[in-house]
Amino acid sequence: MNPRTTRTLRATALAAVVATATAPLLSSPAATASGPTAATSADPGWVTGTVVDTDGKPVEGALVNVLPPREIPELGLLDDRNQRWAVTGADGTFRVRQDGRGFLVQVCDAEPDAGATCRYPSDADHLVRYVGPDGAFDSWLQHTDIYDAGSSNLVLGEVEVQPPARIEGTLEGARNELIEVMRLNDTAALSGRTDADGSFVLDGLAPGSYYVRAGGYGTVPWQSEVVTIDAEHPGHVAGTLEAGTTLVGRAFDEATGAPARRTEVYLTQADGTPIASLLTDRDGGFRFTGLTPGDYQVGQLRQGGAFIPRVEDVTVGSEKEVRAHVALRRGASATFRLRGTQGRVDNELRDSTGEVLYPNVIREDGVATYPGLRPGRYTLVVKDAVGYAVRSFRVRGTTTKELGRLELDRPLLTLRGRTAPNAVVEATTSDLCPADSPFEQGGFHEIEKADAQGRYVIRGLVPGEHWMVAADAFPHDYAPICHDDVVLKGSRRFDVPLEEGHTLTGRYVYAGTDLPVITGLGYDVQYPAGQVTNPTSEHPTVGRARFGTGEFTVTRLAKGPATGGLAVTGYDDAYAPSLWFFFPWQVGTPYWLEAEQVPLDITGDIDLGDVELELKGA
């Protein structure tokens, strides 16, 4: 599920349950201490049964949850007040209230003193189990139907839970290393760590086929062959985590030869994409391990510290070690002091092209210092709640520039215009356009909401040639847009019109049936990268299946080519509940659901009809 809605539990499903629903009981076992004791004539009936182990012995302390579609497949965070859960006593019996919206029955080991929460898989004695009209399975993914609520009691008889399966082994060279159990679609099912000797046991897995992977963080990535496991047949894997090629070097001041101590050095791909960073030691030394053959860069990548950014090209072949030294040139430093200010103080140091080098560098005493400047012209812009100041200066050599005291006495600028009704308009010097571009931090950011006629006013701005102005009318049906490099030399008008968005609808069904998916999976529409109308991470173009109906709606779609498919991207920034969805797999099990990815040409509203989901990993 989207990480904003539930904590990640490395959980798994329980193995075989014996019985399914039978005829209603005329009398029911007594309710446990956790459950309700009486029902009115208007209430749904009870779900009753007995949890037993593989020897047929009652299981004490088993948690039984009745999960309506909205809560499938939650393993925790259930509302303790819902009265749809119970913990079995010494005789293994349970009685829980049905849910009027339809439901599955979840059985797992209870987490002590944590309400309706399943125990962490690696600490549990039994696997999770889901029981429904189809039968009893390791995972909710194997179910295609849910129980309808009724006034009669639903009798499950004996629900058999089984011990978990595991994978164990030794990975030489992996000391306290992260290690993951992977499904065959390359998603992580469970994770753990090796011990100091590289040994590991990954417990809490449902029977099935998996592989294990590790490395990639200072070592060469490693993965095992596929292993098929069950409780009686654990998986055994062994391997070696290789260090790969080691890059060793030294960063130093090219003018004096002195070491560049405590300087951040980056290792990047040949195109500048960062891989790792570290601080040099007292001799300016650095060491990166785990490199594979290819082209890299190493050096000071970003503005900061006493030295001017500089990188060196490195080519790695089959050798065990390569060396690359980075000669850095010390830059100039500029310092300013503020006079009395009011409210929040924002500031930027910009280079001659207007790009932001340092955003919001200021101490509590009102002093800001900008080191590592190469020769050239710079502009300092500072504002508080009342006014702003601009100071331009030139750097020659490595001298320190004292810019004196700044008086923030210039009136702040205003941006006004028209957009969609009630849209949010933001103006910022951060680089956020397109929305999927790499983020670069600026020092100024203001945001306001338009009125019902679409009129907006943003105050408190300063001059600049690289403002981004964007608008988003979520949840109203308009496609967002951003405008980069908007020039502000004074207060001005800038309209941000939004096009009405298009809508995509469909219904998830299980392959070969017309049965709707039972829980809230998502449908995701994604666009080619780099478009100014691409959705933001806060408001992705995702629609969640309406629980129990399989029906989904995706709104605010911009025109143009796109791709639609089952949502598998975790949008951590999405804060609207309508954009939260469950992932199409379950932690600790080998299963996942798939749907065909389809190309879309968005020129109007689209109805996909039934979208089939196939169960994989069985």
Automatic annotation (TrEMBL):
Keyword Repeat included in the entry's annotation: no
EC number(s) stated in the UniProt entry for this protein: 3.2.1.1
Species this protein is from: Nocardioides silvaticus
UniProt KW keywords: Signal
A Gene Ontology BP annotation from the UniProt entry: carbohydrate metabolic process
Coiled-coil segments on the chain, per record: none
Domain of life: Bacteria
A GO molecular function held by the record: carbohydrate binding
UniProt enzyme class: hydrolase
Signal sequence interval, chain numbering: 1-33
Any Pfam family the entry gives: CarboxypepD_reg
Entry keyword Signal: yes
Catalysed reaction equations from the record: Endohydrolysis of (1->4)-alpha-D-glucosidic linkages in polysaccharides containing three or more (1->4)-alpha-linked D-glucose units
Protein name, UniProt field: alpha-amylase
InterPro entries xref list: Carb-bd-like_fold, Ig-like_fold
